[in-house]
Amino acid sequence: MSYVKVGKIDDFVDGKGSEVLVGARRIAVFRDGQQFRAIKNICPHEGELLHRCAPREGAAVCVGHGWRFDLQTGMCTKGPSDSRVAVYPARVNDGDVEIDLG
Ligand code: FES
Q: What's the pTM value of the predicted model, to 2 decimals?
């Protein structure tokens, strides 16, 4: 486990997605109250940025063409079933939002 700080809780708007950059990685971070989810920020369909969507029912729905990705598993639940995005564990630690990049 290798958690890195990506910001403070209040840097993230509740109910919205944000993009953070860690090295060359583009990561979409979604805030739901005090809970955070992090996934790769590139849609595997045509490369739309997934942080631009508002999360719905635990999923990110791509603003490009509506593919839907479960925020816990990364699995595509609307679109090709063999498609997925990487998921990164996220936590709050003393007011900081941290992501485990593995
Ligand atoms: S770019 Fe995401 S569904 Fe098409």
A: 0.95
What would the pLDDT profile of 54-102 be if each residue is shown by its tens digit? 899 999 999 999 999 999 999 999 998 899 999 999 999 999 999 999 8
| Atom of ligand 1 at shortest range from CA of 65 | 3
> Phi/psi zone of residue 57: left (φ > 0), alpha (ψ -120 to 50 degrees), beta?
left
Bridge pairing between strands 87-88 and 90-93: unpaired
Domains of the chain: 3-100 (2.102.10.10)
Q: Kindly state if the Cβ of 48 falls inside 6 Å of ligand 1.
A: yes
CA-nearest of 35, 40, 1, 34 to 22 is: 40
